[in-house]
Amino acid sequence: MFTPQGPSLRELAVQALSSVERGYDLLAPKFDHTPFRTPDSVLDAVERALSAMGPFDHGLDLCCGTGAGMGVLSAVCRESVTGVDISAGMLAVGREQEPPSGESGESAQSGPRVDWVRGDALALPFGSVFDLVVSFGAFGHFLPREFPELFGQVHSVLRPGGRFAFPLPAPAPPSSPWYWALLGFDGAMRVRNAVWRPPFVMYYRPFRLGDVRRELERAGFDVELYALPEFGRRRDGSPRCRMVVATRGDG
């Protein structure tokens, strides 16, 4: 898809007619060559913002996929970095890749311990052991009714004072071609899920800042927003991309 190394249209069609787990198992070997991987520009911006807040000891990449966000955690966490994902195929690719070692080129042994864990984001297999949880590009796999459960799970694996951070781009305006492209994509997915089983949950539009902030606060988080200046501002002065930082209180 878009590159010779990416999946073909036929491969994408087979993946789209599978479950989320099976679809990503099939996509995993070529995932990093698709537009679905979080761009390095976003990863770098989040890393810079988190570096100003850290360092942290133990980090979790929620729905880590092949591990694009694991490098961010390895740069800001001192003790351990854990990636959790429901797709065994995505985790296998992540394990096979060279462990992140940061910009300094130091060996993996000098950085945090790296672990890959197969698990469901709605039933995380951890206690309250993390100082930082991040996630990149995964929230479209959860329906709005699942946000309370999802954020409750993240709250449960953070230590008091721990932070849950993720980038959130501003929605495209109706004048943008991206607005209509995403609207069409979500519409096609709704039709697909209405006529085909198992469902493949992937919607771009329902994860909106107002709803997300409200559900995070209901889950017990204090929420702050940080503009990511690398992406500039829209005509109305609002940031094109923010980092949401939700902090678990001491209670």
From TrEMBL:
Domain Methyltransferase per the UniProt entry, residue ranges: 60-162
Keyword field contains Zinc-finger: no
Pfam family, one: Methyltransf_25
One GO-annotated biological process of the protein: methylation
Keywords associated with the record: Methyltransferase, Transferase
Top-rank lineage group of the source organism: Bacteria
One MF term in the entry's GO annotations: methyltransferase activity
Protein name: Class I SAM-dependent methyltransferase
Species: Streptomyces spongiae
Classification lineage: Bacteria, Bacillati, Actinomycetota, Actinomycetes, Kitasatosporales
